[in-house]
Amino acid sequence: MTCLFCRIVAGEIPAKQVYADDVALAFLDINPWHRGHTLVIPRRHVTDVVSDQAALAEIAPAIQATAELLIGRLGADGINLLSNNGAAAGQEVFHLHVHLIPRFAATGGFAAMAAPDSDIDLDEVYQQISRS
Ligand code: AMP
Known about the structure:
Elements: H1 4-9, E1 17-20, E2 24-28, E3 38-42, H2 55-74, E4 78-82, E5 98-103, H3 122-130
Antiparallel strand pairs: 1-2, 2-3, 3-5, 4-5
Bound molecules: adenosine monophosphate.
């Protein structure tokens, strides 16, 4: 199996998983733009949103549940949803994923989304999201 995200679904590669249901997984992005940057993916291999009519709708409940989690656990004030489709759009992993990028008040709106924060401690963020 060569697809990186299929290998995460199979448990062959570790990920900081924050949500799972029958059709989707959510895990922290290994290189976050902002605190709590999370990827939601379908369990089944789908290349992108454009190539599969059903996939985005299938993972919509997982996107909503993960967004609620990020707001509830991290105190996010908003979330950018982003899906890169095709290399020209910046897609690097060719297994459909939706980026959930938590945003916090007064940090510059949409224009500042792609200006990554530095010094994000993934373990600390994971603990805060995963606490029971
Ligand atoms: P994209 O450019 O939309 O294809 O984004 C791919 C994303 O996957 C990037 O934000 C990467 O940081 C992220 N990524 C790559 N490998 C991993 C991994 N092993 N675990 C979590 N996120 C990853």
